[in-house]
Amino acid sequence: MTPATRPARRRPAHGSPALAEAGLARTAPGGPHPAGRVDEIAALLGAHVDRLSRALPALQAATPTLARWGEDLGRRLVAGNRLLAAGNGGSAAEAQHLTAELVGRFDGDRRPLSAIALHADTSSLSAIGNDYGFAQVYARQVRAHARPGDILLMFSTSGRSENLLEAAAAAAALGLTSWAVTGPGPNPLAAACTDAVCLPGDTATVQECHLAALHMLCRAVERVVADAPPDPEDAVVDRPRVVS
Q1: What is the CATH number of domain 55-227?
Q2: How far, in Å, CA of 79 to CA of 153, rounded?
Q3: Each residue's pLDDT tens digit, 44-85
């Protein structure tokens, strides 16, 4: 039989008796989900939001601390000091999010502010980890980059990461101000730093609250910068205004 005369193979339709007998019946793509599945997933996601709602009062209670940090950090950055930020995994992303907002901008146009995410220099990170061990990847960078008046800010859901504890010890040895934004307290990192904000919840909830906390800090910093004398460079550099 040639290909031209071969009879077309018939495929049983989704949900057909043939599939049902084989135990393979399933819904067609784009069709309704099995009964109860959407309700089950919706309940799961609703519980996620509930956990976040329960954590928000602690974030609200941290407002005075974040306002104090924002005032201090804003004044130091305007004076030419810098922020060093660190974290691991999702907390590293939070640290880099914060430094990007400061070097770029958060809400309004203003001068760039000096902030370094210590994990972002991957060559240094891997070299230090290879030569000195992962526990030293941030501490050695703190000793290299920190100057009097700088601030070290660390994010951690557990508050127990060895490399952050080593960084806090390096900051203390240099007389550096160090802040920690962590998960539930008390924890070793909060105790090792100059000041800390500890927020309750599981890992996802804590990270979501950390994002809100870093945005609150940015808002406070920009308020301080807005009240500072103009940057002389602003008068001579014509920067295009781009709305993102």
Answers
A1: 3.40.50.10490
A2: 18
A3: 999 999 999 999 999 999 999 999 999 999 999 999 999 999
